[in-house]
Amino acid sequence: MPRAANPLLAGVAGRCPNCGEGHLFEGFLKVAPRCEACGFDLAKADSGDGPAVFVILIAGLLVAFGALFTEVALAPPVWVHLIVWLPATLVIVLALLRPFKGAMLAAQFMNKASEARHD
């Protein structure tokens, strides 16, 4: 079974952290049950809420700083903030969520977290 050169980069790219070839996701965020290239069992991987927390913190920081800077520098009307920052929030969150989930799943793979026992 071939190994990916860097499982973390493979996860960020949405590829299997074991081989770097197959798809990690079946849909936008649904993890595939198996890698189609190497047959690695991806079903046992669970990232929980970790990726969402990181994405919320990063997107919140970017949008809050951007809105505050825009308000202080330009003082636009409220509707300008709504037109600019609501779509920016959506784009940032959607752009970061999948790579962060892939990175968290790859980190689990690298640290063999699925082998942990809960006895």
Write up this protein.
Helix 2 runs antiparallel to helix 3 (78-110). This protein has helices spanning 7-12, 50-74, 78-110. The protein has one domain (7-115). Helices cover 54% and strands 0% of the residues. The longest helix has 33 residues, at 78-110. With 119 residues, the chain is mainly alpha-helical.
Strand-helix topology:
Layout: H1 7-12, H2 50-74, H3 78-110
Biggest sheet record: none
Radius of gyration: 18 Å
Please bin the fraction of helical residues: 40-55%
H-E string: HHH
Report the count of strand segments. Answer: 0
- How much strand content do the residues show? under 5%
Distance between the termini: 30 Å
Total discrete domains: 1
Summarize this structure briefly.
With 119 residues, the protein is mainly alpha-helical.
Keyword list:
119 residues; transmembrane helix; elongated; single chain; mainly alpha
